Amino acid sequence: MQNKTRWADLFPDEFLKKQSEQSIIYLPLGICEPHGHISTFGLDTYKADYLCDESSRRFGGIVAPTLAYQIHEAGYHAPWLSEVLGEKPTYMTGMPPHVMLHFFMYQLRTFHNAGFKTAIVISGHSGGNQNDFRLAASIFGQVSDMKIFAFSDPELVESHYEGDHAGKYEISQSLYLRPETVNLNAINRMNDADSLGRFAQGEDALEATAEMGKDIIEKSLSFIENLIAEKHENQVIARKPMTYQVVEELYAQLLIRKNEWVTLQKYDFQNETPAESQWKSFERVIL
Ligand SMILES: [Zn+2]
Which CATH number does the domain housing residue 256 bear? Predict the structure, then answer.
């Protein structure tokens, strides 16, 4: 296999060589969730995977195993789901924020223990979750000299494009990266009585083009390149393994600050989730 990027695919000596050339670990965060009838479920995962793999190929560094489960349903997700999915079943790999953020701290621990100088986290699912990952990362930074960047993919291009959900922005990226995962012929499927309805499909998806997708992806990669800015040669850091106890203490600090978690809150511009909605009970997670 040429141009290997994945931790899982490397032999030990390959890992050490690659890491000593560029001491960066990338973490792709994805999810399976409805993106209309025009897209397969893994759109957010494909974006994150590609940005991490291509960054590794171009700028060096190693890609950690993808985590294709993500914070969903809680806080601002609930009124959104009530609007775009209603009472339909969801078929998504959503997780509550406390489970994801707790696990995220353990993921950072593995990168810290493996001696990386920098961790770059790219979430293909966005909307506010990235703020919570950054809060967790900042707390983790109290005990680690590993530099941590965490972004959702629309943040990489926010001066050029506005992110969306299964609309022109996202479907363009799919048309460029994985055209076989897009079926624009199904654009009106949502109107059929036997379908799952809108299923979170974006309204301007038909305006998507592979050309725009390429531009979004290239601009995203430039952003990541600027983050890296330098080669981290010989910057593998020998560290003692961080204990579980330390991570639990860090998570306890994060939990104390749960009132700041964006994924537990509704945005001011959103309506309340209707009382009869299946999503009502997800609005608040009692911790
Ligand atoms: Zn998406």
Answer: 3.40.50.10310
